[in-house]
Amino acid sequence: MTEQETMAQILTPTADPAWVLSVDGYDPLRESSIESRFAISNGFLGIRGARAASRGARWVVPARTYVAGLFDVSGTEHQTPGLVPAADWLRVRFLAAGEPLLLHPGDVSSHRMTLDLRRGALLSQGSRIKAPDLGLRAQTLRLVSLSDRAIGLQLIQMEVDSGAVDVTIEASFEGMELGLIHDRLDQDVGVWHTTQTGKHLAMASEPALQIDGRVHPPSARGKLTWSWSWKCRPGQVVCFQRFVAVVRSDIPDTDPGLEARDKLQSALHLGWSGVFAAHESAWAKRWHDSGVEVDGDAVAQRALRFAIYHLNSAANPSDESVSIGARALTGDDYHGHVFWDTEVFLLPFYVLTWPAAARALLMYRFHTLPAARAKAAGMGWRGALYAWESADTGAEMTPLEVLAPDRQVIRILCGSQEQHISADVAYAVWQYWHATGDDGFLLEAGAEILLETGRFWSSRAKLEADGCCHIRGVIGPDEYHETIDDNAYTNVMARWNIRRALDVAAALRERWPACWTTLSGRLRLDEAELKQWRNVADTLVTGLDPATGLFEQFAGYFDLEDIDLTKYAGRTVPMDVVLGRERTQQSQVVKQADVVALLGLLPEQFKGKAAAANFRYYEPRCSHGSSLSPAMHGLVAARLGDSEMALRFLRKTADIDLADTQVATDGGIHIAALGGIWMLTVLGFAGLSLRDDGIDIDPHLPGDWHSLTFRVQWRGRCLKLRDDQDKQIVGSVLEAGEPMVFSVRSKPHELRQGTGLQVSTARL
Ligand code: BGC
């Protein structure tokens, strides 16, 4: 293939419409949400889908580049650290006969931007640019490499239709002083530092221009600026290429400039086609391992592709010092802070399709354990209380106040009261260990997290006169109700956390006694304390009413005003805005899945008909004031066999970022909701659950779905699963690894590598 043909192939998006997301033209009102949705990322670098070419002063939107872990404290009153954007390395400016081509929407007769989900690239095609003396057609591509996360690539190819004028292309970096202070700016590299957190950033870049296949050296160059001038003529093909290499260093007083230059040199050595090929095959591997195919529902398929694209874009298995913020690297809502979203809504995807990424995310919690211990100690408890909002150090980052929609300043209590995060982290640690069998992780980090969080709950719960332990003054997942006592979600998760801590202590003692001696010695954990943990777990109230099987969401919840939410159908604002904060707090209106989330995470805690009873009670009371909520409801509805209701929740979740009608997407995509789409599908519709000796499937596909196909990994094995609803057959193939148990609706079968298994679900 000639270079020209390779370029043409690279610049052509995947033809199958199910693999791309496109937007035509330009709508200033929707531009911000498009930028979020069309973001590209590799877990280290994230770039919003803003256009690269200058459109004049009124239209300039820098393509924000986020670097994972690049937190700094802004000059705000409360000094909340947030992600600071790096310079926009994609800027280009065109001049024809000395006049800038501003590319106002009116100057571009057609413009289509395409996010190629399969190849992880943002492309634009068919831009016809008309200036008085010049007609051009342009195609562009940008990517951040999934194979070498430091590297970004930009390609612009232009064909001259008409005009023979002097043209200039200027390439530069923009926003170099947006949040960072530069240490040095050379021609090919810039080095910056954060103002307060001691981090450094280096960006090295080398653009090149070819005219009709021949390299055209820059006519001028300065500090991270280059320009090329020549006389164009019809038929000319101009190709602009730019690499960037980005390196973050967390070590104060270092200069990562050299490393960035080295990385740039390796990329230049590979060339754009080599960089693209490596990136494309890294994406192919991710799609192979994590793709989900739905036959019979194009809308759900599209939602899953979009979700899985962003999930694969968000993680970086080689950086244990960062986790995934609530908007991943696609926008700055929540300042890049990390919430329970990661452990509860994202980890299931990574654990089952990308264990190395899951491990790195959990190691971030291990590295931030000292801050979690300090938070617990600062509040008078033992063990580890993780930050509700966490950044780079793990210290509590939740702002103390925010501005409500009615412009009132309201106090935020989540940072001190939303403590279930500690149990959520423990839950994810356990699930990871259980699913991967990664004992090395348990010994290095997981056991300590489980023990320290278990210890936190054992000190947090207090024995009272009724002979029971209580946890008072918390906020559950439903943040509409604050300073509540005995939140069922918190208490049941806490009890589960303590019991798993006891299990891990027993496992260590039995299987790795030397490790136990060291760890228990270091944590000063003795038999008396373990006994106290057991007592707390055995006497902690849960709010369960044995007569009805209902968990009371928190003490006193059943006495609150019951509001019929169907009367508010069609509202466009959250229920706490409709009712006002005070009345909401006095009502049973729930912001998001709370008892339902418990049902999603620990279904075994709901015996017999209790699962359905709790879901039927709480589902109508939930106002879905958080993007996390519908998917969790969908997961539970699917497991309960109501696949049509589950499908409605899937569509509602998909609309959050794709339709941009429910919540604002301007500040980034909602990565937890996207994780929820995968959970709903694989854990809900396919009904996948982990057993001690393998995996179980209990499918409940929506009526129109013919089949659902996906892969998961389990303890070093790779399985391909397919639920064929039309034929009422569940098929599974063990593609790699030792024999294992694969059960369908609790009926176990032995699965061996190479031999497929087909199980009829007709009579099960
Ligand atoms: C939700 C939290 C969530 C956070 C970040 C809030 O609105 O209530 O549960 O962790 O957003 O996504």
What tags apply to this protein structure?
764 residues, alpha+beta, 5-stranded antiparallel β-sheet, binds beta-D-glucopyranose
Annotate the secondary structure layout.
Layout: H1 3-10, E1 20-24, H2 31-37, E2 40-41, E3 45-47, E4 65-67, E5 71-73, E6 81-83, E7 88-96, E8 99-101, E9 112-116, E10 121-131, E11 134-144, E12 151-162, E13 166-174, E14 181-185, E15 189-193, E16 200-211, E17 214-215, E18 220-222, E19 225-231, E20 237-249, H3 257-290, E21 292-295, H4 298-314, H5 340-353, H6 355-367, H7 369-378, E22 401-403, E23 409-411, H8 414-417, H9 420-436, H10 439-460, E24 462-463, E25 469-470, H11 488-511, H12 513-523, H13 527-539, E26 544-545, E27 550-551, H14 575-579, H15 581-585, H16 595-601, H17 610-618, H18 629-639, H19 643-658, H20 671-685, E28 689-690, E29 694-697, E30 707-714, E31 717-724, E32 729-736, E33 740-744, E34 747-751, E35 757-760
Parallel strand pairs: 29-33
Antiparallel strand pairs: 1-9, 2-3, 3-4, 5-6, 7-8, 7-13, 9-10, 10-11, 11-12, 12-20, 13-19, 14-15, 15-16, 16-17, 16-20, 18-19, 21-30, 22-23, 24-25, 26-27, 28-29, 30-31, 31-32, 32-35, 33-34
Helix pairs in contact: 4-19, 4-20, 5-6, 5-9, 5-20, 6-9, 6-10, 9-10, 9-11, 10-11, 10-13, 11-12, 11-13, 16-18, 18-19, 18-20, 19-20
The protein binds beta-D-glucopyranose.
Beta-D-glucopyranose binds at residues 326, 334, 339-341, 477, 479, 592, 626, 628, 672.
